[in-house]
Design a protein that fits this description.
With about 200 residues, the chain is mainly beta. Helices cover about 10% and strands about 50% of the residues.
Amino acid sequence: MNYRKTIVLVGLLMGVAPNAVRAGLDFIIDSESSAVLFKIKNRDVSFVYGRFRKVSGVITVNRRVKPTELALEVQVSAKSLDTNSKKRDKHLKGKDFFNTRSNPKIKFKSTEATKLEDNKFKVKGEMEFMGIKKEIAVEFQVTGFKRIAGQKSRLGGQTTFTIKRSDFGMGKMVPEVADEVTIIVSLEGEFTLPPAG
């Protein structure tokens, strides 16, 4: 499967035009080497941290070192949520919060990326969460590129941003549990050549 062509086609069918990268180099996200974390204040006392153990997608750049163009396509499995408490995780995955049976994925697809400085971009795109789509903007930093002996080349990047969960229809227990959620994303992708033809 040509992953890049597939996401462009899906984006067009959904009415979302992904930002194009000339001579794009695709780095398929490695879930085991990536992390999607979140923190939220609970009862105005302390922060609860959690993570999503499964993330997929692709990072596309126009060159390996100091790229000037970038595109992102990221999907997170809401069912892979983990806050180190099985009881809390069960509650969070239920109808009061993530409702993972009806909303199994959290998605982001970039529509525009503007270079701010070497290896840093302002990325605009559409985030889909709880069945609601909203445009957000984040700063994404390319953190490294390396050719690893005996393996395919790797590219890393990260971003931290904040959303209000009520904007996506998750208003349960606000303000006892904070509305504002900080999301920390660290991605590592493996270079993949497109199939011939």
